Amino acid sequence: MTDAVFNPAASSAAAPLRDIGIKRRRAAEKRFRAYGVAAIIIGLSFLVLLLVSITSKGYTAFFQTKITVPVEFSEKIIDPTNKRATDPKVLITANYPNLARDAVAKVVGIDPKDRPAIARLKGFVSDGVRAQLRDMVLANPDIIGKTVPVTFLASANIDSAYKGQIDLTSAEANRKVSDSQVEIMNKLSEAGVLREHFNPAFFISGASSRPEAAGLGVAILGSIYTMLIVLALALPIGVCASIYLEEFAPKNRWTDLIEVNINNLAAVPSIVYGLLGLSIFINFMGMPRSASIVGGFVLALMTLPTIIIATRAALKAVPPSIRAAALGLGASKMQTVSHHVLPLAMPGILTGTIIGLANALGETAPLLLIGMVAFVVDYPTTPFEPATALPVQIYMWANEAERAFVERTSGAIIVLLIFLIIMNFAAILLRRRFERRW
Question: Which numeric CATH code is attached to 217-434?
């Protein structure tokens, strides 16, 4: 056997080539890291741009321009013939907007008898003042003839102008707020009777054709009903199916076919589930249209594959030694799964469930197909009554022609994002709280 002969010249000649190769690999690694950092920065930049755009347009929806003035409940306007004792309907049909109009006119120094000047106040106060003042009179008829301070909403156009969302320097013909209305608005603001207030009605009111009175109350309640139904259906069914497939089902072509189909169902577009819900739950089973119960069933079907996949992954992550130890101590297969495997897999199951619910909360297409686009003013008392949901409400407001609904749309998006952030943050906390490292 011949011994290898060391050649110093060949070794010294190959050294520069090795150095060049090492430098190239290091340079390639640096470039790859730079590409990764650049990709993250670009992604975060787009995310920040999106959030800033939505927030800048929508945070003003949490505030509303209101007018507080002393209103004289004049008997000449409410009940000029003094028939309310025999005909209570006169208190319902009275011209209450004139009371608010005259109250504003007095503050800005307009004579109520000056009809041309009074005409400039048209469209200044929200039309909802009619119902507001009517309800006050019906609740307390003794208020007639008295002067009481009342706070009511400014119209949507005045609200937008006061918030600076309308360019008042443009020509009067190009905007919905006239110069006379701007002058009145400035006088009321200087008098301290026209100001922005926090707008709780945005979170508790129902649908309205007037932007200044529209709120998310029905949509939030409808989303809560829908998510509770999804949770009640998808979680137990998904966990039980996952346990059977992972722990008890024999490994054959049928279980392989089921697994493939579950993975395929997770990738099916959400609108297909909407078509399924329309044909089965509404057309075939006759369930109520635009109800949270139908929306919950449809979204439960859509969320089920996600929960099954996440639960199976959590069950697989439990070491086989746990199962072997439990079986070796005499536990049955069911006891092993329920007492040992399932508790250890619970963090992953909860995380997958919350992420699935968060995805379902933001879905719009399936809810549109089952008719959850109803104009609902009153709160639904049960999941079987007509309701809408947050993403659907956003879609409806985005299609409105009124400029003030742009503000409402962005504000609703902020509320929906807050719900999604809370749910994802809860998933992270649960995983860190119950996570076990092996």
Answer: 1.10.3720.10
CA gap 75, 72 in Å, rounded: 9
Question: What are the structural domain ranges in the chain?
Answer: 60-199, 217-434
**What's the mean per-residue pLDDT of the chain?**
86
Please report, for residues 63, 302, 418, the alpha-carbon distance to residue 54 in angstroms, rounded to integers and kept in the order given. 16, 28, 12
The model's confidence at residue 435, banded by pLDDT at 50, 70 and 90, is: low
What local confidence, expressed as pLDDT, does residue 5 receive? 54
* 3-class SS letters over the chain: CCCCCCCHHHHHHHHHHHHHHHHHHHHHHHHHHHHHHHHHHHHHHHHHHHHHHHHHHHHHHHEEEEEEEEEECCHHHHCCCCCCCCCCCHHHHCCHHHHHHHHHHHHHCCCCCCHHHHHCCCCCECCCHHHHHHHHHHHCHHHCCCEEEEEEEECHHHHHHHCCCCCCCCCHHHCCCCHHHHHHHHHHHHHCCEEEEECCHHHHCCCCCCHHHCCCHHHHHHHHHHHHHHHHHHHHHHHHHHHHHHHHCCCCHHHHHHHHHHHHHHCCCHHHHHHHHHHHHHHHCCCCCCEHHHHHHHHHHHHHHHHHHHHHHHHHCCCHHHHHHHHHCCCCHHHHHHHHHHHHHHHHHHHHHHHHHHHHHCCCHHHHHCCCCCCCCCCCCCCCCECCCHHHHHHHHHCCCCCHHHHHHHHHHHHHHHHHHHHHHHHHHHHHHHCCCC
Q: What is the pLDDT of residues 177-222, one digit of tens each?
A: 888 888 888 888 988 899 999 999 999 998 888 898 999 999 999 9
Amino acid identity, residue 169? T
Please state, as a whole number, how many other Cβ atoms lie within 10 Å of the Cβ of residue 223: 27
pLDDT of residue 44: 94
**151 forms bridges with which residues in the sheet?**
68
Q: Minimum mean pLDDT among 161-175, 392-406, 423-437: which range? A: 423-437
| Interval 312-365: pLDDT, tens | 999 998 888 888 888 888 888 889 988 889 888 888 888 888 888 988 998 888
Residue 285 reports pLDDT greater than 80:
yes
